[in-house]
Amino acid sequence: MPSILPEGDPAPSDGSLPTSVLDGASDRAFGVYVHVPYCRVRCGYCDFNTYTASELGGGASQAGYAAEAATELSFGARVLRESGLPERRVSTVFFGGGTPTLLPAGDLASMLGRIRDEWGLAAGAEVTTEANPDSVDAAYLRTLADAGFTRVSFGMQSAVPSVLATLDRTHTPERIPLVVEWAKEAGLQVSLDLIYGTPGERIGDWERSLDVALACEPDHLSAYALIIEQGTKLAAQIKRGQVAAPDDDLHAEMYELADARIADAGLHWYEISNWSRTPETRSRHNLSYWTGEDWWAAGPGAHSHIGGVRWWNVKHPAAYSQRIAEGISPAHARETLDAESRRTERILLETRISDGLDASVLRPEERRAVPGLIASELIDGPAAIRGRIIPTLRGRLLADTVVHRLLGSADG
């Protein structure tokens, strides 16, 4: 089952925000995330806030979900207006899940229409949906493109049947080139998501997945190491000895292989797990998370952030539906980050991206760790001299070490 929501401060039922969110608001981009919490099958490795039809129970309707999410989007627009925030058009929209494309294409189009009506879309706005390869066809993708979607991110995960079976994925490898072709014909940018380090996966299997993905010539590619989350089916299988636990050394070897192969194919890393063909095809929505911009997130369990205030919605679709029907905020709790917490988060996140961290963010005692990080080949030396903290390939593999040494949590 999905993980438990964190505790926090009480969230006001009217969604009101403190005046502190106004500080610097005009300099921050604004995006919207819509969480669609439905999946046809629960993958064994997944602890996201998603539900199959059998898990929903009463009080939640997949058919009525688009209308509920649209209601929250209008609620959000009102909250931001009443908070005195400047008018900002939406720079990025991301539909995630779950599997957003389990809903009819018209439902996604209608939710995007509500975003457009309430806030307006900025010129050149990026509008993405996640999709499983077997949840769309050519007509579905054309409908999305006609509605204003610009990008689709397919959960490919692997091109090897045995690996897909271990992950409980329902599509076949042969489906991948087909859906990519349909998306490109519709005029959509394409991202492919891969997972490496699945129990039983060999280096040759991973090479096969990379070959298939890169042969599709995607605009963007993500490659994530499999993390075993407590409470998942896969965690239970490992505990019972049915499958082997992930091997950290193999993960590192797979990452290095991926980075080399992806670079040879003409894509460039810009975040530890993400590569794009050009700067324009980076996921601008995800970059907004890593650089501390503002976003309203609609849907069960969705996490929003506005000016250092972060809140998270109630998790279960039935509880969410009830809040929406009552006309009150679906937020479960929230927290207001102080200046030091925001600075620490900035160090944590911006040392993961190719643009790097401005070294002026570091305190003098933290900057003393920089020469050691250069000597350890964890950050780029010339970039550090210019005032940017940018991880090397080794630094990407040891990202936690970079952060710990900068913040003084380990010997520098």
From TrEMBL:
<dbReference type="Pfam" id="PF04055">
    <property type="entry name" value="Radical_SAM"/>
</dbReference>
<comment type="similarity">
    <text>Belongs to the anaerobic coproporphyrinogen-III oxidase family. HemW subfamily.</text>
</comment>
<keyword id="KW-0479">Metal-binding</keyword>
<keyword id="KW-0143">Chaperone</keyword>
<comment type="function">
    <text>Probably acts as a heme chaperone, transferring heme to an unknown acceptor. Binds one molecule of heme per monomer, possibly covalently. Binds 1 [4Fe-4S] cluster. The cluster is coordinated with 3 cysteines and an exchangeable S-adenosyl-L-methionine.</text>
</comment>
<dbReference type="InterPro" id="IPR058240">
    <property type="entry name" value="rSAM_sf"/>
</dbReference>
<feature type="region of interest" description="Disordered">
    <location>
        <begin position="1"/>
        <end position="20"/>
    </location>
</feature>
<keyword id="KW-0349">Heme</keyword>
<keyword id="KW-0004">4Fe-4S</keyword>
<dbReference type="InterPro" id="IPR004559">
    <property type="entry name" value="HemW-like"/>
</dbReference>
<keyword id="KW-0963">Cytoplasm</keyword>
<keyword id="KW-0949">S-adenosyl-L-methionine</keyword>
<dbReference type="InterPro" id="IPR013785">
    <property type="entry name" value="Aldolase_TIM"/>
</dbReference>
<keyword id="KW-0411">Iron-sulfur</keyword>
<protein>
    <recommendedName>
        <fullName>Heme chaperone HemW</fullName>
    </recommendedName>
</protein>
<feature type="domain" description="Radical SAM core">
    <location>
        <begin position="24"/>
        <end position="268"/>
    </location>
</feature>
<dbReference type="InterPro" id="IPR006638">
    <property type="entry name" value="Elp3/MiaA/NifB-like_rSAM"/>
</dbReference>
<keyword id="KW-0408">Iron</keyword>
<dbReference type="InterPro" id="IPR007197">
    <property type="entry name" value="rSAM"/>
</dbReference>
<dbReference type="InterPro" id="IPR034505">
    <property type="entry name" value="Coproporphyrinogen-III_oxidase"/>
</dbReference>
